């Protein structure tokens, strides 16, 4: 393993942390409807818990309503029950073969709770990025100890990893700022 490998590995891991943050932020509810809210809903499909997107088609009917259409008619009641019991604060209503999931408007207090949740997700992502930096720096020290690279190379590598860390932390801050604005917009 070389200094370049350590830097490349660190950058890949930091990118994964950013992708995870984006996925987690997509699940945070804003005033508008989006199908990502229902990603965590598990439906009892013939005795085994199955992701909702595997048993139903999810669409946006309008800005505040999600449409859920099960692939099998007999799954209608199970899907509706799973959404209701998912503890998302949603109240689905079936209309024939379609289940309508209206998004209740967020209160100011609930919006502030959502912002706290977003900030917690951001802090978790920053911790993950800093852990990758620490692991990268330890790998560089091990390379010096094993006499694979010089101390100057190690120092340059640590500087590069610190620049990567700063870049990814700035990206996390930007993502969180955007999400906070989205949540607080009425």
UniProtKB/TrEMBL annotation:
Which Gene3D superfamilies does the UniProt entry name for this protein?
Answer: 3.30.1360.40, Ribosome-recycling factor (1.10.132.20)
List the subcellular locations.
Cytoplasm
Keyword Cytoplasm in the entry? The reply is: yes
Pfam (any one): RRF
Location of the Ribosome recycling factor domain: 21-184
Keyword terms:
Cytoplasm, Protein biosynthesis
Q: Which family does it belong to?
A: Belongs to the RRF family.
- PANTHER family registered for this protein in UniProt: MITOCHONDRIAL RIBOSOME RECYCLING FACTOR PSEUDO 1, RIBOSOME RECYCLING FACTOR
Q: What does this protein do?
A: Responsible for the release of ribosomes from messenger RNA at the termination of protein biosynthesis. May increase the efficiency of translation by recycling ribosomes from one round of translation to another.
Q: What name does the UniProt record give this protein?
A: Ribosome-recycling factor
Gene that specifies this protein: frr
